[in-house]
Structures are given as C-alpha cells and as structure tokens.
Design goal:
Layout (H helix, E strand, L loop, with lengths): L9 E6 L6 H9 L7 E7 L5 H6 L5 E6 L4 H11 L4 E4 L4 E3 L3 H10 L6 E10 L10 E4 L6 E3 H7 L13 H11 L4 E13 L14 H10 L2
Parallel strand pairs: 1-2, 1-4, 2-3, 6-9
Antiparallel strand pairs: 4-8, 5-9, 6-7, 6-8
Protein name: Glycosyltransferase family A protein
Keywords: Glycosyltransferase, Transferase
Pfam family, one: Glycos_transf_2
Amino acid sequence: MSAIANACYEVILPAFNAARTIEAALHSVLAQTLPPDRIIVADDGSTDDTASIARSFGDRVTLVRQANLGPAAATDLALAHSRATLIAGMDADDIWFPTKAERQLGQLGGDDRLDGVFCHAVNFNHGEEPSADGPSRPLWGRSAMMIRRSIVDRIGPVHHADTPRALGEMVRWLDSGRRLGARFSMMPDCLVGRRLIEGSLSHARDPKALLPMLRARLKDRR
C-alpha cells in the first residue's frame, strides 16, 4: 500500500437541520477501514438537534457553527478549520461504504499528478438500507470527494461558485479548478450511498431545480 494511504485526512461535513440523517453519516465515516484523523461538522444555523448529535460523538467530531448561509458557506467554514493535507467531503444525508477512504487514498498515492479523486454513488430511499451493488453513477460532489489541500487553496472559496437555490455549487467549484489546470479522476467504484429524502437540497429530484446551476455553468464557460 502506498504511503499516502496511511496519511492523515480530515472530513468536512456541512449540515443544516440534518438530525434525521447525520448520525448515520458520521458512523459511516468513522467505520472506514482507514478512518479520518478528524471530522469537522459545520452546522449551518440548524434549528433541530443536528449540533447535539454531532457533539455526542465527542472528540472524534469537531463542531463549528454559523448563521444559515447555505452549504457553500458552510463548506468554506469547515475548510477554514481543517489543517490536513488531504480532505474528504461529506453531505449530512449520505453514507460512505467501508472502503471508500482506503481506495481513494490508494488512488491518490498512485499518481502524484492527481489533485483529487471522486467515485460512483448509488441512490437509496430514506428508511432503506443502501447497497453498493445497485445501479450507480459518477458523482462530482462533496460525498465522493478526496482532494489535496493544495488545490483547494488554489481554487478558493466554494461560496464564490454558489448558485441560486444553492444547487450545483460543488460542480461549478470543480470546474474552476479544471480551468486552473487541476486534474481530477473519477473512480469506477461505487463507494457512496446518496439518500433520497424529502426536503433534501442536494438531492432535489425536480429537473427544473437544476436549471440555475446549468445556466451558471454555461455563463462560466463563455
């Protein structure tokens, strides 16, 4: 196994009113075959028990809080508190399958030219158990991300890529990285379960909800 696979990494997790799902998300990260050095939960002005659930994990989780400014700003808050050279992302309603971090760290360690790696994800309905054997698709999003701090600092704040209705900010942010010459790889492995749950911003099913993000990407490329 490459040396990077034994390196420390941290997980950034923005959360807003995620009391129904954040415990499962955190457990899935801590159950990794290569667990993180630290998980940073950025509570984005939640009014439910999100913060208290995060605190219940003790020193395994660092909780930081802000007023409700959206997932992009919460991601930036978590990044500001991270000191690791390798950073993974997580959405509060998703789960990782157990070897996610180990496989991605191995991929990064095998190619020094890579700035970040992503993976496939499978959707599952809230209340059901996810299976990595189901139909999956590439995910260019937080929960699939393992990235080097060096490229994070080059790209800059995620909120600069924010869009109306806070959809697709990570896709635009990664596009900014590609324009800087960043190299991102998509692994074929299904390593993430994406929870479909009513009211989830990142998993909106209505295609019309994605139009602001698509318009913003087209504007970026002009």
